[in-house]
Amino acid sequence: MVTHHPPLPDPIINTTTRLSLMAVLAGAQEVEFADVRDTSGLSDSVVSKQATALQAAGYVTIRKGHLGRRPRTWLSLTPAGRAALHRHIAALRQIVDLADRADARPRR
Asked: Where is the Winged helix DNA-binding domain (predicted)?
């Protein structure tokens, strides 16, 4: 009997907070910090901390600059981050498919 192991989600992305941030960033080339915060519903400090962790993993780029005289921060997914997000989502889908198939089996 061959045992099939489901794919493993990415341990770096495998928190709802980080997954939410990456999902927001996946929709654009670059997103201003305030828009990430507002769209994700997370606080400034949580976005900052998690974005820094994702940057350390090579998944997110953080760019600082100014819009007029006001300082701004923009976040974007790196190519590695975008690929990791797609793999993570595919792994989650396969896990959900396993659960759906298990639910579809007749109960004893």
From this structure: 18-96
Phi, psi (degrees; rounded to nearest 5) at 107: -80, 145
pTM listed for this prediction:
0.85
| pLDDT tens, residue by residue, 7-39 | 789 999 999 999 999 999 999 999 999 999 999
Determine the pLDDT at residue 103. 72
DSSP string, the chain: -PPPPPPPPPTTT-SHHHHHHHHHHHTSS-EEHHHHHHHHT--HHHHHHHHHHHHHTTSEEEEEEEETTEEEEEEEE-HHHHHHHHHHHHHHHHHHHHHHHHHHSPP-
Max Cα–Cα distance, the chain, nearest Å: 69
What is the rounded CA–CA span in Å between residue 63 and residue 51?
Answer: 11
User: What is the model's pLDDT at position 107?
Assistant: 67
User: What does the alpha-carbon distance between residue 37 and residue 67 come to, in Å, rounded to a whole number?
Assistant: 18
Q: Give the CA angle between residues 101, 96, 60 to the nearest 5°.
A: 160
